[in-house]
Design goal:
7-stranded mixed beta sheet; alpha/beta; 13% strand; globular; two-stranded antiparallel ribbon
Length: 333
Amino acid sequence: MAYPKINYIGNKEKIVEWISSLIPEDASSILDVFCGGCSVGYMAKLKGLTVYANDILKINYHIAQALIENNHTILEDADVDCIFAGEPIEGFVFHNFADRYYFPDECKDLDMIRENISKIPDKYKKALALTLMRRAMIRKMPYSRFTIKWDKVKELRDEEFSYAKYGRRRHYHNQSFEFHFKDNLQEYNNSVFNNGKENKAFNLDVYDAVESIDADIIYLDPPYAGTMNDYFAFYGFLDAYIESAVPHPFDNNFTDKNTIIDQFDRLFSKLWKYKYWMLSYNSRSKPTKEEILKLLSQYSSDVEVHEMSYAYRVTGKEKKQKDIEYLFLIKNR
């Protein structure tokens, strides 16, 4: 089994083994409280820990259901046939998002597919189907996020224009949702495995999650304030698709560099029951390493900082400047 292609901004997939190597050996359970694309939770599951994966975004909750909580269930050919059966319909996506992210006929397809997925009785098959639809929708969206203006989307989906200007035709943007779903189906099915533990997925605000979920370790990978970090804007449309309702931005988003220290302080004050805290952060972000250490010193005298040089990629091109990825390991008093 292996972690499948998720395409999630901020995903720790490329450095997850480094993070995993720093997990204390005497820990048997972990709460990944900003789980996002679940790369860290998935690695912890591979290591045999009991994993609790939480995220406020509904689509990330379904990723966690499909890859973390789910131990056995996969999608069979008959399930896939049902997901893509029928005629396109003019539903929620067509009426609210046509010519915004996708063309009208594609929105009709999305409405039909969503209605079919809603009829799947098994929650893990439904979660896996939504996770695969996420992959399909991201593959068709330029830059893999829903913050691109429609005129730019159309421009980048014009294969000849894209080739003339950028040297890439990006033909995958114009493949059908069904094509991408089926193209990734085997990889996602193969990622499902049983580690012998009762792992759980949650869809809670971070403050509710830390108060209601017990674990040896809490792993914190919040948005990096001061960077490209608006996950609601990047992926909120996927929640709208799942719920057939326009979602509202969540309050505790950890994106404002002017309030981030206060939010960290409030969060740290609630972590007393966790033996270990692991916090991922980055040298481009606010607060700085020194500011975080000063804040953490109010809660523990046993704080380690591990650092890794890491080059982030933006739109496929490697930045010249290499940033420093931090992993703060805190042993609670």
